[in-house]
Design a protein that fits this description.
mainly alpha
Amino acid sequence: MTTLICLPLRYAEGYLGATYRKSKPSGMISGAFYYFEKSKRPIIRALAPVYAVLCLGCALLGMGTMVQSRSVADAVLALAPGKESNTFIISAAIGIVMSVLFYICVHKGVSRIGDVVSVVVPFMLIAYCLCGAAAIVFYKSELPAAFSAIFKGAFSGSAAIGGFGGAALKTVISSGISKGVFTNESGLGTAAFAAGASKSSPASAGFAQMGVAIIDTVIVCSVSALAIITSGAYKSNLSVTEITAEAFSLGGIFPAGGKMVYISTILFAFMSALGVYFYGRQSLRYLTGGHGVTVFNLLFAVFIFAGCVYPVMTIWNIADILNGLMAFLNLPALISVAALVKSPFGKRKKEALQLTE
């Protein structure tokens, strides 16, 4: 629901990101801060560098480093023998390996990140969704009960621990919105970075960003949720990754489905970290003209390691706070420049009105 409501925001960010970008000798720079500068309100224009600083913080402390490396650590730990007694050691080793791999990737050049992502991610998405769809078909008799559990859990607050009535419902809604925003990033302004890096027209870039949000949240998250609930895997005391793997393995008769979960989690998380690194680096170029990239790279690698050994709830809380601050600045900016967003259907709509008259 969060994604569907926020799709116009995603379109606007993509449209503006592709419209207002600047070509520099070192390459194209894009980002939401450029449409901040187009606002007629002085306070919005003044907040452009503040937003860029928040993007840097989000890249280093939020969804760029620690959340992604934590996801990889959880996936590898689920497969590691003797993890109960060596959790910290294994997590630290995973953090070191991830940090080194990341540094090698960015050292080879940011321009190659998009090439890698464009090849790997589509295949992984298709394979993941097919395995999830297989699980839903396998447990199809549980679908009515699954939908019933979803709506009862959302509106009765049974998913909220320690709350009741309105407090429980508030917890469920805030958790759902924060995770939905984390998945599709609508309203955060990050779509402007990706759209600005594309060669598409502003309208096409806006539609592409809407498509990304639909695939990420409406399709992938729904497939995951239905597979988990219909299989009953959510009733176990396993980690999120292990629960999903159990659901996709069809009760053990399709182990390849479970393996797909672990592999896709590792690849998606690592690719997401590289993508958010690009947002952070663009913000740094906006603020400093490109100075401090080496320090930024080192800090990024350090925080990737930190994510593997930090408590998971602390990591999520940091990410949610930074996402909230970015949205707090970005949404007023979007409202102030809304007149600059043009719909590709504007001409057709005008012709239809004239025909009606």
